[in-house]
Write a structure and sequence with these properties.
The structure is a single chain. The protein is mainly α. Strands 1-2 form a two-stranded antiparallel ribbon. Strands 3-4 form a two-stranded parallel sheet. Strand 1 and strand 2 form a beta hairpin. The chain is rod-shaped and about 105 Å long. The termini are far apart.
């Protein structure tokens, strides 16, 4: 809603002159329509189930330490599959941090298991 800068008459449309006082109105006074920001994600987001599974397998691997590869391998597989799903989702699926944490726990457990096997072999052979 615009007003004439001289007489204060309320203008209803795109008048170039005020109907009351005849003042020339600048076209620049018009406020542009708001632009929709397309950078805002309007789709609801949810956590990747594979990323959640990766984290659960990774944590369970460390809780049940005596079962080394039974749970670490699924943690790694689910983590990589979850990251792929997150990248392909165009922002509708989140949870990359969960997948990375599950991957880290799985890889760390496998690395520690391999070190333990090497140490055991060295002790038995020596």
């Amino acid at each position: 809603m615009r007003q004439c800068p001289i007489c204060g008459h309320v203008l209803t449309g795109n008048e170039r002159f005020c109907p009351t006082c005849g003042q020339a109105l600048a076209v620049a006074d018009q406020t542009p329509a708001p632009v929709l920001d397309t950078a805002i994600n309007l789709m609801p987001t949810y956590n990747s189930r594979l990323a959640i599974a990766s984290l659960i397998f990774g944590i369970t691997t460390w809780i049940l330490f005596f079962i080394p590869l039974l749970l670490a391998v699924p943690a790694i597989v689910c983590g990589h599959l979850g990251q792929g799903a997150i990248k392909r989702s165009n922002g509708t699926v989140v949870g990359n941090g969960l997948a990375v944490l599950g991957l880290g726990l799985g890889y760390a457990h496998i690395a520690l298991t391999l070190v333990a096997i090497c140490v055991t072999i060295a002790i038995v052979a020596g």
